[in-house]
Write a structure and sequence with these properties.
The protein is of the alpha/beta class and about 220 residues long. The protein has helices spanning about 30-45, 65-75, 95, 100-105, 110-115, 170-175, 190-200; strands spanning about 1-5, 10-15, 20, 50-60, 80-85, 125, 130-135, 150-155, 180-185, 205-210, 215-220. It is globular, with a radius of gyration of 16 Å.
C-alpha cells in the first residue's frame, strides 16, 4: 500500500498489486463530497423529512466518507446519523496517521473524531458525538449479517474490473432488502452493466454528472 496525492491536493491510498486507488486520482476529497455528501446525503434530506438517518457504507477504507458524514451532522444539528461501515481489511494505522483529512477540510478540531473512526472493535457501536454513531463491521458485505434497515447506502467498493464479485446481483438484492422504502444508494460507478443489475434488483436508477474526471455517477432508489 502507498500513500499518493490526488489532483485536489488531498491524499488517497494506492494498492500496487491491484493497480487500484481508494479514490479518484483527480481528487479524493472532491470525489467523496460530490458523490456521497452532495448527491447522497444532501439529496436525501431534500426528498425525505426524516431527521434520523441510517447509512450503510460498503468499503470504509480511509474513513473519509464517515468523517464527511460526521461533519454534515455537526453542521446540521437537527439530524442524527447512525452509520454502519463494512470493511474486511481495515487500513494499517501507519497510513491513517498520514491522512490529513481533518486539516484539509478545515476541521482540525475534530481530529480526534477522525482518529476515533479507526479505533474500537468490530460490531460495537461507538458514539462519535451526540448526533453521530458508528458501527464498524470488519466483515465482507457478502457474508455480513445485517439486522436493521438503512436509509442510504454509500457503495464504495473497488471497481468492477478489480472486484467483480461485489457488483453482482446477489449483493444488490441483499442491499435492496435492507434499504427502507424511498432509500437511496449512491456510487461512483456508472457502468451500464451495473445499472442494469441495479434495475433488475428493483432499484430506480438515475445518471448524474460525476465529479471531475468522471462523466457520470449513479444514484439508485428503492421505490416508496
Ligand atoms: C474504493 S476503496 C474504499 C474507499 C473508502 N470509502 C474511503 O473513503 O477510503 C474499497 C474498499 O472496499 C473494501 N472491501 C474489499 N472487499 C470488500 C468486501 N467484500 N466487502 C466490503 N468491503 C470490501 C476494501 O478493503 C477497500 O477499503
Amino acid at each position: 500500500m502507498e500513500l499518493v496525492m490526488t489532483g485536489d491536493g488531498s491524499p488517497t491510498l494506492f494498492l500496487p498489486d491491484k493497480n487500484e486507488y481508494y479514490h479518484s486520482h483527480f481528487g479524493a476529497v472532491t470525489e467523496s463530497k460530490h458523490i456521497f455528501i452532495q448527491a447522497g446525503l444532501h439529496h436525501f434530506t431534500k426528498i425525505n423529512p426524516k431527521r434520523e438517518i441510517s447509512i450503510l457504507e460498503v468499503g470504509m477504507g480511509t474513513g473519509l466518507n464517515v468523517f464527511l458524514a460526521f461533519l454534515f451532522s455537526n453542521a446540521m444539528p437537527s439530524y442524527v446519523i447512525q452509520y454502519t461501515a463494512i470493511e474486511p481489511e481495515p487500513v494499517d494505522p501507519v497510513f491513517i496517521q498520514q491522512l490529513n483529512y481533518p486539516l484539509l477540510l478545515g476541521a482540525e478540531r475534530h481530529g480526534n473524531v477522525f482518529k476515533g473512526i479507526h479505533t474500537g472493535e468490530s460490531n460495537v457501536r461507538l458514539d462519535l458525538s451526540e448526533k453521530f454513531s458508528l458501527n464498524k463491521k470488519f466483515e465482507k458485505i457478502q457474508t455480513t449479517d445485517l439486522k436493521e434497515k438503512f436509509d442510504m447506502v454509500f457503495f464504495d467498493a473497488f471497481a468492477p474490473a478489480v472486484q467483480p464479485e461485489l457488483w453482482e446481483k446477489g449483493i444488490f438484492d441483499k442491499i435492496f432488502q435492507f434499504l427502507n422504502s424511498g432509500g437511496i444508494l449512491v456510487t461512483y460507478c456508472a457502468k451500464g452493466e451495473v445499472k442494469r443489475i441495479l434495475r433488475s434488483s428493483g432499484f430506480g436508477v438515475e445518471n448524474l454528472p460525476g465529479p471531475p474526471g468522471k462523466r457520470e455517477m449513479t444514484r439508485a432508489s428503492k421505490p416508496v
